[in-house]
Each structure stands twice: as structure tokens, then as C-alpha cells.
Amino acid sequence: MSIARQSQRTAIVDSILEAVGDTPLVRLSRLGAGLTPQLVAKVESLNPGGSIKDRVAINLIEAAERDGLLAPGGTIVEPTSGNTGTGLAIAARLKGYRVIAVMPDKMSREKIDLLRAYGAEVVVAPTDVAPEDPRSYYRVADRLVEEIPGAFQPNQYRNPANPATHEASTGPELWEQSGGRITHLVAGVGTGGTISGVGRYLKARNPEIVIVGADPEGSIYSGGEDGVRPYLVEGVGEDFWPTTFDPSVVDRYVTVSDRDAFLMSRRLALVEGILAGGSSGMAVHAALQVAAELTDPQALVAVILPDGGRSYLSKVYNDAWMTEHGFLERSGDARVGDVLARKHAGADGRPPLVVVHTHQPVRDAVSLLHEHGVSQLPVVSANDRASVVGSIGERGLLAHAVNDPALLDAQIVDVMEPPLPAVSATDPVREAVALLTGERQALLVTEGGAPAGIVTRADLLEALAR
Fold first, then answer.
1. pLDDT band at 47 (very low <50, low <70, confident <90, very high)
2. Higher pLDDT, 343 or 390
3. How far apart are CA 158 and CA 161, in angstroms?
4. Statement: residue 8 has pLDDT above 60
5. What are 139-144's contacts with CB under 8 Å, separation 24+?
6. Residue 332 pLDDT > 70, yes or no?
7. How far is CA 97 from CA 63, 359, 458, in A?
8. Closest CA to 283 of 184, 359, 369
9. Of residues 53, 203, 315, 343, which has the active-site annotation?
10. Which of the following CATH numbers is that of domain 1-328: 3.40.50.2300, 3.40.50.1100, 3.30.565.10, 3.40.50.300?
């Protein structure tokens, strides 16, 4: 079956392979709050095998069948970070082939167990050896193909069916789902198939679309041959140049550290409810950087999330593993003041606390909410800026505006709500989270009894994830 996009699905499909593709495009409205352009994500974990590689696996097998390279009952051998192997294993079980997946040893235990659950055989090879070393997972796969009668290696790193898959399915889906409004695409670069195929399709529709490669620190793509070194994020970056990658498609690279990639993955789950892998966190981190540079409100930044997070529960979502590798702090319970300090450090020059006083017009509050990308402001006494007497937020203003179009000319004292609950900077984060019940979304932080800043539910949850 070809996985060129189907415009309509029948109610009952003949096999799970027909459920591949047509993944949703989801607006990241919470992570993207305060950004000028829209930020949307293509959630590929909703493919049957849990990743974008399901698309490629089917086409790799069907291309080999058409070319006479794979005979009935044959063996498929593939060097893979796990996701392609899973897609191949699913298709192979339905088509009657044996699958051997050769994986580098940095891959998660869950990926190995998943491959075996689908009936694949798994061979693990060392990561920190050169690609040409006979122990590397590329060369181990080559050797197995030579030794096993009837074996075939699809080789996603050299097979043109890889980028062709995305040119025929993923690219058209992104174009249609965005209504042709996509201006920037951010995607990780592994085999190069996704970004090359999608990029070619999108640029054919609109040459002005900017294609951004998200790349781990230590990869050859953004660091060159002299910058190649080990990294932990899985399934992206390389230490050689695959022929499936078309470098001319990529307009720029954004390099992301392991730490930033993994912490963004955890934040994506907490803030947007999307459980994704480390390469997805890497891509989102890069997409946020790209979006923050844009001033055009009509811009639309799309980021591809290649797989889900369930294959990384023992790593990215495991506090012990994250702490062991230096991605989480080893200190005891975090304090609210720590959260506020970290928030201020990344505030790009914005003041730590923005307030309005009781007799200012509402239009001033609206301007400040927009200017600083916040959703709530403390209201202080006109005579004493250290005395917090209320709060004003987007939700409350909207409710008032529906009933009173003249709202903008009113004084803040006429529409303000009760003050935000207050916590001391020395309070533990866990105790602060307990105060955020019901509709409460933020807390006022005090230092020495004076207001010092605001922390939101998302700020506190991120601190707990750390």
C-alpha cells in the first residue's frame, strides 16, 4: 500500500498499515504564549508504531519488492535507532519477512523491548566507534547481510525511498493542514529523509518557506567533521553524511544541547500534554528560538515531533537518569525563589515584576499584558506600590469586555479581581503547587514581605520536573 496521503479514511481498514499517516497538526498555544507567530506541531507519535518512521518503513519494503530485491520469506536487516526497526517489524510481520534490527548501545531499553515485542531480532553495537569500524552498527548490519542468505538491507541512509516518502505524504499533509500558511519548518536531521523530502515539497509550493534543521551538539551537520563527538539524544544527528540528505534544502541550523532537548521534552509533556522523545524536545527548543526571532504575526512555524515519549521513560522521564547525567540538579526540594530566579534569568531584559495601580485606565493594563507576554498583573495601591490590593488578567478582562464595550476607559479599580495568593520566596515548590487549586493559575512571590514576581502553574511544574 502507498502511504501518499489519503483524503478520507474508510471506517474499517484492512490492516494497521493503512492507519499510517494523516497525523494531526497541533497548536502549541501554551509553550508559544507571548510569541508573535503561531507555533504548531506535527505529532508523529500517533502513527501505529509510534513514530514518523512508520511512513518510511512501508515504502522501503514496497520499493524493494517492486525492484526484486526482497523475495518472499526473506530477511530484512537494518541499522536503526529503533523507530525504523519498529516500523519495519510491523510491516514485515504482516508481509511474512524476518527482521533484524542493529542498534547503537545508547538506545533506550524500551526501544529494544518494543522491537522484540513485534518479533524483530535485536543486535546491539557500540556507539563510540567510527562509522567505518567493523564494530559500528552500520558495519555490523553490512556483515549480517553478507552472511544471511536472502538478506536485504533497506538502508534508510542511502535509499531514495526515504525522502520520497515524505515528499509524497508528510509534506502534502503539512501544506494542506496549515492551509498553505506555513512559513517556517523546523525538523531534526537524522538520515535526512524527513527534512529533505518535506522541505523539497514545501519549497516547490512556496520557495520562500524557511527550512530549519534542528541538530544536536556533536553532530556533523551543524558542527562539521571536526565537531563530531558523542551525544545522548537519539535518532538525530550523524557522524557521516547520508546520501538521503539533501543539504541544499536546509536554510539554517539551530544546534541544541542534550540538556535543553531533554528538559524541553519534559516541559512539552507538562505544559502541552504531549509525551514526546528527546529529538522532539530538541526540535521544539529550536522552533521556539526561531519563532522568538520573528515579528510577523502572519508567520506560522511548524515543528515535526518524530516520536513519542513512552520509549524514553527510563531515560528522559526518569529523574535518577537525568540527575546522573547532570541534566537535573541534585539539591533537595527547590524553593519558590529558585523558580523565580530561573524565570528572571531567561526573561530577556523584561522587568521581574510588572504592576498596575488602582486608578490607571484598563487600556494600560491591556498594553502591559501584551507588551510583556503575561496573562495576569498584580494591582497595587496608587499611594503605596508595595501594597498589593488586587489582580487583573486576560480572562477577567475578556469577561467584562463582553458586557461592557467601554471597558478600556474604566479605571482598573472598577474591574480588578482579588489579589493572587501569595507565597514566600523561601517556601518549597511542592507547597506552592498545592495552593494552585481550581481556577488559580499563578501565585505572587514575596521577598521580605514585598512583592517580587509571579510564578505560574507551568513554572512550578517545570521546577518539579527538574
1. very high
2. 390
3. 9
4. no
5. 140/79, 140/102, 141/77, 141/78, 141/79, 141/100, 141/102, 144/77, 144/100, 144/102
6. no
7. 15, 75, 47
8. 184
9. 53
10. 3.40.50.1100
d(Cα 459, Cα 457) in Å, to the nearest integer?
6
Whether 428 contacts 332, CB under 8 Å = no
Q: Which three cell numbers stand for residue 254?
A: 539551530
The count of C-alpha atoms lying within 13 angstroms of the C-alpha of 351, restricted to the half-sphere facing its C-beta, is 10
User: What does the DSSP assignment read for 349-367?
Assistant: T--S---EETTSBHHHHHH
Mean pLDDT of 52-79: 93
Q: How far is CA 350 from CA 61, 86, 135, 297, in A?
A: 53, 46, 52, 21
Question: Packing angle between helix 336-345 and helix 457-465, nearest 10 degrees?
Answer: 100
Q: What is the pLDDT of residues 176-229, one digit of tens each?
A: 999 999 999 999 999 999 999 999 999 999 999 999 999 999 898 888 877 788
CATH 3.40.50.2300 correct for 336-465: no
Q: Is pTM, for the whole model, over 0.85?
A: no
Alpha helices in 304-426 (DSSP H): 319-324, 336-345, 362-372, 394-403, 412-415
Residues in the chain: 466
Q: Which amino acid is at 214?
A: A
Instruction: Name residue 392's beta-bridge partners.
Output: 377
**Mean pLDDT across the chain:** 87
Domain limits, the chain: 1-328, 336-465
Do 275 and 462 form a contact (C-beta atoms < 8 A)? no
Degrees (nearest 5) of the Cα angle 47, 53, 54?
45
What single DSSP character describes residue 157? T
Does residue 111 carry a catalytic annotation?
no
Q: Answer yes or no: are the C-beta atoms of 201 and 167 closer than 8 Å.
A: yes
